[in-house]
Structures are given as structure tokens and as C-alpha cells.
């Protein structure tokens, strides 16, 4: 029932996004993220909303795509295995100044947000971002700040998602994950044994 209610409440927003996109001749979007499950999920959701998505798993691949055919929109992760996503934002801004790019990151802080905007991004969202929030940010009218998300994740959920991502990147090695997160191994094991918070 709650899922149905969310679908209905998100219906108006999705209709507005679809109408806005329909008016555009170029709906090309570059999605750059090295987290394959998240990248694929977000790409599918953005395609359902009307974007023509091309995916890149790293900075070098994104730079090649930008050099050949700079997209109208871009959603780029800040920190990737082969470099900083800001390089791709700068390259896109240089090749296509009218492109709308937003940065995604699991390491949100004000300094990074300022750096992203200076590089040419129009907005900055924390991962894992909702497709509606991404589309809303990409299609925001110039000088208009997109409204805050209707149902933002709780701080506990954001923390849990970040821990899960690091755990996956460490090959599900508890000791290595605990070391990288600067956390006691037993504390981490307790968190991993629990369900995801809401």
C-alpha cells in the first residue's frame, strides 16, 4: 500500500519531467559511476523518465564519450577508481557549456560541492540518489534551486548504504572494511548483521 501511495504522489513529478523532456530535441545523458549495480539501476530509471542514457564506468571512458559526442546532460560520480569525476565535468563544460551536469557522491561535504559547481556542475546530490531527484536537478530552470526531496533518506540509512558500498568494494572483507572505515571490527559485524534502517 505504501508503495502504491508513493507511485501516485510521484506521478505528477514524473509527468512534469516527461513533459519537460519532450520539449527538448536533445535528451542525451552520460551516466558515469563505477558502482555497476547502482549505475545500471539509475540508468534504467532515467531511461524510463525519457533520457537517452549512455553509461561510463570510469573517467577515461567518460572523457572518450565527451570528446566524440558531448551529451546535453550528465550524472557523474565524484570519486572513481580511475580518477576524480570533476575532470569529466570540466571536459564536458569546455566542450558543451550549455550541458547540465550534476555530481553524485557518497562523501558529501561543502568543499566538494563548491568544487563541483566551480567545475561546471549545476547541482550536487549525495549517493545513493533517487532518479526523480536526479531528473529534477537536471531539468531545473537556471538560477532556480530544485526543491528538497520529498522523502530523503535518514542519516542512519545514508551511513548504512556507505558502509555497504565500502564493504562491497573491499570484496566483503570485514577486516579491510573496518580498517578503511576506521571502525572496530566487531562494531562493523553488528552493523552488517542488521537489516537496512529506513
Give an account of the 3D structure.
The protein is an alpha/beta fold and 198 residues long. The chain folds into two domains: 2-138, 3-Layer(aba) Sandwich (Rossmann fold), CATH 3.40.50; 155-193, Arc Repressor Mutant, subunit A. It is 53% helix and 15% strand. It has helices at residues 2-22, 36-48, 59-68, 86-95, 110-119, 131-138, 155-169, 174-181, 185-193, and strands at residues 28-32, 52-56, 73-77, 79-80, 83-84, 100-105, 123-126. Strands 2-1-3-6-7 form a five-stranded parallel β-sheet, sandwiched between helices. A two-stranded antiparallel ribbon has the order 4-5. Strand 4 (79-80) and strand 5 form a beta hairpin. The radius of gyration is 17 Å and the shape is globular. 27% of the residues are buried. The model is unreliable at 1-9 (pLDDT under 50).
Keywords:
two-stranded antiparallel ribbon, 9 helices, 5-stranded parallel β-sheet, Arc Repressor Mutant, subunit A, single chain, globular, 198 residues, 2 domains, disordered N terminus, Rossmann fold, alpha/beta
Number of E-state strands = 7
CATH superfamily annotation of the largest domain: Response regulator
The count of helical stretches stands at 9
Query: Which strands sit side by side, in order, in the main sheet?
Result: 2-1-3-6-7
CATH topology group of the largest domain: Rossmann fold
> How is the quaternary structure best described?
single chain
- Report, as a whole number of angstroms, the end-to-end distance: 16 Å
Low-confidence stretches: 1-9
Compute the CA-based radius of gyration.
17 Å
Total number of distinct structural domains:
2
User: What's the architecture of the largest domain in CATH terms?
Assistant: 3-Layer(aba) Sandwich
Determine the structural class based on helices, strands and strand pairing.
Answer: alpha/beta
The major sheet is characterized as: 5 strands, parallel
Query: Helicity range of the residues?
Result: 40-55%
Question: Can you write the helix and strand succession as a string?
Answer: HEHEHEEEHEHEHHHH
Q: Judging from the principal axes of the Cα atoms, what is the shape? A: globular
Amino acid at each position: 500500500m505504501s508503495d502504491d501511495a508513493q507511485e501516485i504522489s510521484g506521478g505528477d513529478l514524473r509527468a512534469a519531467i516527461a513533459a519537460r523532456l519532450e520539449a527538448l530535441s536533445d535528451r542525451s545523458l552520460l551516466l558515469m559511476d563505477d558502482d555497476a549495480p547502482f549505475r545500471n539501476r539509475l540508468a534504467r530509471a532515467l531511461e524510463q523518465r525519457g533520457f537517452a542514457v549512455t553509461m561510463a564506468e570510469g573517467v577515461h571512458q567518460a572523457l572518450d564519450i565527451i570528446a566524440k559526442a558531448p551529451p546535453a546532460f550528465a550524472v557523474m560520480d565524484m570519486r572513481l577508481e580511475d580518477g576524480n569525476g570533476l575532470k569529466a565535468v570540466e571536459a564536458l563544460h569546455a566542450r558543451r557549456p550549455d550541458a547540465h551536469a550534476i555530481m553524485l557522491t557518497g562523501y558529501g561535504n561543502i568543499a566538494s560541492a563548491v568544487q563541483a559547481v566551480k567545475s561546471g556542475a549545476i547541482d550536487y546530490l549525495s549517493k545513493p540518489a533517487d532518479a526523480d531527484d536526479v531528473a529534477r536537478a537536471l531539468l531545473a530552470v537556471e538560477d532556480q534551486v530544485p526543491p528538497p526531496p520529498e522523502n530523503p533518506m535518514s542519516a542512519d540509512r545514508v551511513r548504512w548504504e556507505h558502509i555497504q558500498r565500502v564493504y562491497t568494494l573491499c570484496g566483503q572483507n570485514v577486516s579491510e572494511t573496518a580498517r578503511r572505515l576506521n571502525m572496530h571490527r566487531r562494531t562493523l559485524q553488528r552493523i552488517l548483521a542488521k537489516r537496512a534502517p529506513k
